[in-house]
What does this fold into?
Amino acid sequence: MRNLDTVTLELIKGAIQSARVEMEALIERSAMSPFIREKKDYFTAFFDRDGRLVVSTALPMAAGNLIDCIFERYPRDDMRPGDLYLYNDSYGSHGAVSHNNDMVFVAPVFSDARIVAFAEAWGHLWDIGGMVPGSISPAATDVFQEGIVIPPSRVLRDGIWNEELIRTFVRNTRFPDMVRGDLSAIMAAVRLGGRRMEEIAERFGAGAVEAAFAGMLDQSERALRKAFAERVPDGRYSFRDYIDSDSVSEKSYAVAVTVEKRGETIALDYSASDDQAQGAINFIMDSSVPKTMCGLYFTGQEAGVALNGGFHRAVGEVKTRPGSIVSPREPAPLGMRSHCLTRVNSSLFGAFAKATGGNVPAASSVYVLYYLRSWNKERTELDLCIEGLAVGFGARPHADGIDAVYYVAQKNYPIEFAEMEFGVRVEGYAMHADSGGPGFHRGGCGIVRDLRVVGDEAVIGLRMDNMRWPAWGVKGGMGGGAGRIVVNPGMADERELRPMSEGNKLKKGDLVRIMTPGGGGWGSPLERAAEQVRDDVLDGFISAESAERDYGVVLSSDLTDVDAAATHARRKELARMPRGLFHRHSYFDDEELPRAAE
Amino acid sequence: MARLQLALDIGGTFTDVVMVDGVSGALWTAKTPSTPKDPSDGFFDGVEKILRLAGTAPADVAAVFHGSTIATNAVLEGKGARTGMLVTAGFRYVLEIGRHEIPRRENLFIWRKPKRPVPPRLIMEVPERVLLDGRVERPLDEAACRAAARRLRALGVEAVAIVFLHSYAHPAHERRAAEIVAEEFPEAAVSISSDVLPVFREYERSMATALNAYVQRLVGTYIGRLQTGLSKRNVAAPLLVMKSNGGVFGPRQADRQAINMALSGPAAGVIGASFVARAAGFDNSVTIDIGGTSADVSLIRAGAPVTTTEGELGPFPLALPIIDIHSIGAGGGSLARVTDIGSLQVGPESAGADPGPACYDRGGVKATVTDAHVALGRLPPTLLDGHMPLDGRQARAAIERDIARPLGISVEDAAEGVLRIVNANMTGALKVVSVERGYDPKDFTLVAFGGAGPLHGVELGRGLGCRAVLVPRYPGLLCALGLLATDLQYDYARTALQRGPDYDLAAIDAVWRELEQEADGELAREGIPVERRRFVRLADLRYAKQGFELTLAVPAKTLDAAGVARLVEDFHAQHERLYTFAERDTQVEIVTLRLRAVGLVDKIALPEIAAAAGSKPEAYERRGVRLDGAWHADVPAYRRGALCAGHRIGGPAVVDQLDSTSLILPGQTAEVDRHGNLIIRMG
It folds into this structure.
């Protein structure tokens, strides 16, 4: 049944997509922890019988090879209907999951005694033990400080649960009820996905379903190959981007890539990336991760393209060097791998910028988190507040960067909720002016969050990047602004906190101001319409100083009018200044040296 | 004596009019073209036309019900008032930052943040601060408030929204600020969040208040024009306007709570579907309203539409109680195309009413869903009593060029493929409101309406596994009919956090009594006599530290210790039913208290049609129709108006009426009930 007709292919595609969304809905409906229910940190997918991704949640952070590590231990021929497999072992799965809080469940789907597909889901568990509540700490230096590890294991066979395994796992978390609840939710979703896929196979026939899988992969592969052929000239392009630090030292780490483009495919080589870090920013980069980034970006405006193994086929080899930050050796810690993941993305787009004369998005900043624990003398009770804070994303060839954004589907806590439940007071929640990189398309702005400590004492842990190495701008666009964290700004006892740090002590009445970084700009700021710049000034995204300095737009003293003559003169003067393809602190065309920004 | 109930629903293309004689049960219907530039023109055309048709005097009209898209369109098209805001110092970016997420189904590299209804430059910060328990941390800076009001006036603002943090717990600051704005800026329309939505979550509350201010003037002017025009035409009857929550409100409330009209039209459709289905003996149904560009689906349980406070208006959250309606871009005008990679896509782009499908021959050349129906012989050669010919040649040509040739298949296979895909999309939407909410569609009847609903109903019902599909007697007029099945319904709410386990019952009761007093006054002002006022107490509960609540009906009028225990137990049980688990050891918080106030309005009885009395339905013509891959040469076509109660029609068959065609598949049987509905049992 190789030649499936288009209509049936689309119907099966729709049915699989809808089954996948139903899995998500069930997880959201039945999970217990705020990490899954509110933060929505979960992922669902279907794979074909060979473990190739057919359809999944559209997140470029998730690997597409989630089944291979199960095959290593459990040959496909040995699998039976009703089997269920699980793991959270980042090293043991070769990066199928990339930090151990993500627990994967997989169920084989049978049709007439033959495996036709796998249903899969993972969710970020609230706590799996380890050195701190939540299991991820900027202070970790060893993966075994980050909680209990379950290698790929069979947890259900012939209707019998491996109850000891679950009991042992749940014994290792600080929140057993919540974790058990989340595990049931994810398991139930995978089994539901399996049932739905069986129904699809029954309705259309297993042969048609397998042909549809092949057709879906072909469509996605074709779309990405076409985009490469049309949009990226042949050649070799290298770029490196930097992570500020690993939080246990002051050293910055480079993620470096060379893109080799030939015809309608590319190959990637990340082996020039720095050695693995001592702190928890290491990322076991599955080859599917940069491939998915290419697919999502280059086919993002094409209808009907599913995120799947077709993308993985359209990109050739992805090389990494064992012992490097994108291919660390055990027991390097992994908890904060999103810092590295963001640079895997920005180095890749940097290389594409060189290939395309800058027709790619500028760099985005890494989202920010803080962990505030506070105590009241009377109450001895501990209020733990973990909040994710938005940053600015990079400007794009088709639009400004997104202002004040955390990630896909992850919502903030309303202030009126945080004040009810977390023992904090929020005194300001504003746009971080000038943090969006100037450009024809402006980079997205980060935010400013003012927290007043209401407990008698408190300790704050922080995860903020892009201070030393802000997000770069491209094609004449300028870099995004860095973030800052200040205690009691403007007061006699004003002090700065290190952006990646644990255990900062605070006292009652202290005000902590967290200013998050922005995204890079795209295109020359001198070409942004003067009225648009004025509106951005009026709206507080750009200061009047930056308007004049970076955009060459001079405004009247009340900021409401553009001084056309002065603007013309200023823009003419600025136009004489040479610009490069990239900008971060200053313009550059090729690569920054590791020390350039320090 | 005034005995006529008149209803007008204004849609994008047509204004639908239904009038019922409350005494004789007679029913008149009319359709007039909508007049988007000034919808009131179409409204009055409709009023005049129906009165002429019925040959009655304006004085006989007892009430005028109205569903309108004026508020929706203003928001979706960005055509509301120039609106400014006053907010607590430090929170100027409350709308801009929002909930800081990219929607789950979007591509993070491509997505753009939707433009807010109020830009930051028109948002002024005012020093003041209230804490979550209502204590004033910092008094309102009246001088700063005055200066901000003047500044907004100088900036040419027409409407002002006032939103202060935790104002639900202490509305005094917002109220005082509103007075100051009124003094400095009397011509501005003012909305305050403690009136519009006194419920916690500042972004959602700010958005509701800003949107209310944004449409307030427009809605007020429009309603005023309708009132003036009605009295000029000697219609003295009260005007009642449809709200998103399925109830109606009078002009006084509409003027202040304009944003409650956001889903006016679609909500009326669901009420209409619920009314008709209940009269036909179906208490549980899923409903689908298929028009030219979109399909709206909803679920009715135990005779009542399901409401939500997590709805959306375009890209914005709408946290007011609204009927839970899920909308997708799939309708008769949806465009079908083959992409570069060979994928067949149907919608969400639409040819709309203008230029419309290729078969309309009004300048549209692209293949649409309607063209696919025409190519398969499902539609008659003309619509609207012969006033609108359908050009089969154009339909086939479009399908051939856009679909058949690129895919290398026959025109018929292409047309059927288009329909199968659009049906699959609609089935997906129906599953969102049923399966994904934990309901099995097998237990529900599908009510298919809107101009195109009856064409798709049976295939959708089959795909979902429903036992029956109900096609109402007037599928294109169900929104207007729904207007005649409503009551006045006002929803009140106030966040007043109680952590438990020792709830302050006196404080809770005091809030409810206050809300009840307010509601009672409002119903009195709308002329609802005491014996027709109903009040339902509800409460939002959640587990401590959980970010969402469940709304539950309060078991007793006054909440005592036993009542609260039952309420909490109901919460655990409901949580378990919806989310598969309950945490009986976790503290339960009572977060928001709600009151639903209802003013009962006279309902019409659905008119009955003549009984079959032994007669058999007679086909007026036979058509070649392709169904499930095979042509059926002589499919009988019946006229809807000629059918009698008790008639049975075996599939394959089509039933034509003025603005709609119903399809019955081979193996299925349609029965005509006493109200003229087609009840189609799946084979």
Notes: Chain B is about 30% helix and 30% strand.
